[in-house]
Design the sequence.
């Protein structure tokens, strides 16, 4: 399922994309060598991440120009708060970590840097600045899920992999791609790469991708 | 169904509350004397209102301190975008007005003043400032619906009345009341009326109520 | 002194511009027929206006992309808070109105609608959306000052006229024009009128101009 | 010169305060052992820091409740943009680094994490949340300047030390202390430590202090 032409262009111009989607943490999920304590550490940080990432998607609703943009952003907020966060709570509960403990997780600097950068992209710019900073997480996890579903040599982290390889999650990536392509056409036009904004959006996308690499690095360092 | 103790206190200290909930526009809905062109004019303005009101509820998600606050605010955003706006589209469609026409409605100054005031309450203050400006619309419509369901002498506007008298809508008012009471306890404490913030929150609530009166006045002036 | 090419284009495509800059309130300032109570009523509302207008210019600093954009916006904030607001305080003091009374002025709906619209333009969009909503007030007063300095037939309101006709104020208009032209080039490019954003920016400028007309109307209605 | 009672309380409850104000980087400024390349690296990052820190102070203007709060925040914005940033430009120019190079500095994650955390404190909360995150930098540098002015054993970094030990900078710290004490009294009252907000404000202050330690650590790692 395609994630849209804008995402494809941004991704292809981001050299660090490979370091993110083929990170050692990702390899460890696929071959089952990721230590369980690293995975739980990651899940706890990711719970805090998802709270602030949901806030950033909610900010997107406030910056929409059309009802359709609002609907797509609101659908994502809903999916994050009521499904993805709920999944983390369930997975952590199975490992003996309750939600109060999750919520009390001390946020690591790598985590904080990423989500607050995304939020500031939205506050300082318009919806496109925000979407360029939101895209690497949404679509990157979609790519990683699809990749690992085929490439994995272990079922240790099959639940995690199936979540992001699922048709439900792939549909989210597709819908966000539609949202981004529409938002670009509406604000920049049919030939966005000639706009002075293009380089800036590309830079935001690359910075968020770099911060994803930092997040995986942190995951390996419980 | 109770709407919470904070709302009750704010309402009882707002002299203009009666002018809002017993406005001539409301009477006209109850006895069927409201001219159909005034009702359609109101519905079109209210469609634009709901877009910006949804943006303000989305802003509340970005200003929440707990996941529970986020969930309650996200549930309201969802109800507004996917149910209440959808109802307006359906009602207007039945009257021959399509959504593109609705979206192109020229926003009246009374409408603009109200929603932008609410949004600014959120941007300039914290979640409480925003909730104090959001409450009069949510709970006032709940009260009006309950009142008219009993007091109405005509079924001309029964659909509208039933929407806000419904147990679903009353549940929304109840949930928002829980959200407000919790947010007050979390930020001001158990005896909020002694805080210097109380008068300011009361003023915001009263200003939003006054702007509701202006909205009904506009409804009578197509 | 020129106010820049972007402003010139926006103004020339805004039919209501004439209704704003040649409003009956403006005529009354020029021929001295404006009743003193209308002028004082206007000054009090304008004091409240300037507070929120300064907040909107401060928001522009948070949305700048370059240090030069920050400097120009910060210079305007400074001029507003330390000079223009100070002038209102002085003029009102001479008429027996102290600052506490000024600050307690009940904000009129026409006033509130205008400033909150400008602030929301900034929060929902990027710096250009905000500048398009800020420009009509800044440059319109510059045009009115220049016009009345020549056209006035009475010295009753000479202090007010001289303020906006002064080389200091004309310099502010010039600098804001430079800021806008640079911000457009940086974000849209050298041929901005072909961008899908142009119509939207034009609409924001026209809406703010319309709200200026509403402000003068309010001024005549103490 | 006192920095106010709120700051004193926040500082005294922040164990990491000492690690910040007596950091090895600070010691190196005092005894002249800080390598020049570390100092220049720090200055370049601090230039980027000041840009975003100025944006956060500008955000404070938009969240003020009184004209006096606006004036104090606007004065700080002005000092940051027109004096402190200018000083960095001058110091770096003397070392052969022009402003274009400064502006192109690749922002380090430790730097980004700090300023975006402060901005988000403002966007998600009210003025107090923002001030609690702004205070450690302003006042900490004031304390460090005063301390090093007496304790220094080398004049290598005397210009830097004198900047923050100067009566002008000490006055800024004093004024910000007045702003904070007034903002607390206006929003929480005379006995703020009993409010549920107090712990939260304390946490924000401590987090910003921790991020200052991270910034010094980064300074030692060019």
Sequence:
């Amino acid at each position: 399922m395609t994630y849209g032409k804008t995402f494809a262009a941004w991704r292809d111009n981001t050299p660090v994309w490979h370091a993110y989607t083929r990170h050692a943490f990702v390899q460890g999920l696929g071959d089952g060598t990721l230590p369980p304590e690293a995975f739980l550490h990651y899940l706890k940080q990711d719970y805090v991440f998802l709270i602030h990432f949901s806030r950033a998607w909610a900010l997107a609703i406030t910056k929409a120009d059309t009802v359709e943009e609002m609907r797509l952003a609101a659908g994502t907020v809903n999916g994050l708060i009521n499904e993805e966060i709920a999944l983390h709570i369930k997975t952590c509960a199975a490992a003996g970590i309750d939600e109060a403990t999750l919520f009390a997780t001390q946020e690591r600097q790598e985590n904080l840097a990423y989500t607050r950068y995304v939020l500031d992209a939205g506050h300082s710019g318009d919806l496109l600045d925000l979407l360029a900073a939101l895209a690497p997480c949404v679509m990157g996890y979609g790519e990683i899920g699809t990749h690992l579903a085929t490439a994995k040599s272990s079922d240790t982290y099959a639940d995690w992999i199936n979540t992001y390889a699922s048709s439900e999650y792939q549909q989210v990536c597709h819908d966000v791609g539609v949202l981004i392509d529409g938002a670009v056409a509406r604000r920049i036009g049919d030939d966005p790469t000639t706009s002075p904004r293009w380089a800036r959006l590309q830079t935001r996308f690359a910075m968020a991708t770099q911060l994803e690499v930092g997040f995986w690095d942190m995951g390996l360092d419980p």
